Structures are given as C-alpha cells and as structure tokens.
Automatic annotation (TrEMBL):
Keywords: Sigma factor, Transcription, Transcription regulation. This is RNA polymerase sigma-70 factor, ECF subfamily. Pfam families: Sigma70_r2, Sigma70_r4_2. It comes from Andreprevotia lacus DSM 23236. The lineage of its organism: Bacteria, Pseudomonadati, Pseudomonadota, Betaproteobacteria, Neisseriales. InterPro entries: RNA_pol_sigma-70-like, RNA_pol_sigma-70_dom, RNA_pol_sigma70_r2, RNA_pol_sigma70_r4_t2, RNA_pol_sigma_r2, RNA_pol_sigma_r3/r4-like, WH-like_DNA-bd_sf. It comes from the Bacteria. Belongs to the sigma-70 factor family. ECF subfamily. Residues 124-176 form the RNA polymerase sigma factor 70 region 4 type domain.
Length: 181
C-alpha cells in the first residue's frame, strides 16, 4: 500500500471521529511533520506546540479533505506549514526569562516525537535499511523526509536536475520498502 492509500482512509475515519485513526495518523506522519515545523520555526518547543495544534486542526477538519484536490500528505503538510507561518506572524507575547526561572520551573526532560521515533525498534530497522542505500539515495531521502525539503528545494540544494532527485528518492524508497518487508 502506498502512503496515500493508507492516509486517505485514516482521514476519512478521523472525519467519523475514530480516535484510533487519529493515533495511527499521528504515528505515521508526526516525524516528518515535526521536521517540517522544526525547519520553519527553528525551535523544538514551538514546533511541538504547533504540531499539537495541527493535529487538533486535522481532527476537526478531516471531513473537508478531498482526494481530488491533493494527496493526504500534501494536505496535512500544508496545514503544518500554514500554522507555522501563522505562528511566526503572531505578536511577540513571550516573556524574557532573564534569570532562567521559567525554564527551571517548567523544564520537561521528556523526549519529543523525533527522539521517541529514533528510540523505537522501527527506527533501528529503518536506520539499518537506510545504511544499505546508496549514499546519494540516502542523502536525498533524509533531506526530504527529515528536513522536510520538497523535491524542487532538494534539487536546488544539491544543484542537481529535478528529475534526478525524484529518481533517487523513488529508487531509495523502493529499496527501503523491500528491506522493511
């Protein structure tokens, strides 16, 4: 099954208020979406907060998703990007923490979504399969999925033709799929 084949039914189930579908959607999409938010916002705490707001938004508006207009991952990523941009445009309401008292009182050592993914058995399997890829494919996939770069951004960053980047990602993902079974 391809990603759209998995995500579209999950969004339909979310529209029907199926909490298990939302949990599954979160498991499948949060690492990439956290990377997108982190790339835009440049702060873990902001990215985590925006991501939480985005999943509430996805839950509330899953019924408005239309597969005719966009792929599920595109729709979800657009929500995250737009929310990040809104976050950056908001008036500056942060209080300066000159003596670090706020940080000391509210610090949380709990791992974020990316850290939890990296600690899981699945991530070890993925990491092992990633090591088996050609270096160019591995780099393209890592930049696309962990840094949230689009194909065109990736082509520009690597100074390569767009078709080459798309081929590397497609071939790399196919090899990952075969490796992961």
């Amino acid at each position: 099954m391809t990603t759209p084949d998995i995500l579209a039914p999950l969004l339909q189930r979310c529209a029907q208020r199926d909490e298990k579908a939302l949990a599954e959607l979160y498991q499948l999409t949060s690492p990439k979406l956290f990377g997108v938010a982190l790339r835009i916002l440049r702060r873990n705490d902001w990215a985590e907060e925006v991501l939480q707001e985005c999943y509430v938004n996805i839950w509330q508006h899953a019924g408005s998703y239309s597969s005719d207009k966009s792929a599920p991952q595109t729709w979800i990523t657009r929500i995250v990007r737009n929310r990040c941009l809104d976050w950056l445009r908001r008036p500056d309401h942060e209080v300066a923490d000159v003596d670090d008292s706020i940080v000391e009182n509210w610090a949380d050592d709990a791992p974020g979504p990316l850290a939890r993914l990296l600690a899981s058995d699945d991530s070890r399997r993925i990491a092992g399969c990633m090591q088996g890829l050609e270096a160019s494919h591995r780099q393209a996939i890592a930049l696309a999925y962990f840094d949230g770069l689009s194909h065109s951004e990736l082509a520009e960053k690597l100074t390569l033709p767009l078709g080459t980047v798309k081929s590397w990602i497609r071939r790399g993902l196919e090899k990952l799929r075969l490796c992961l079974g």
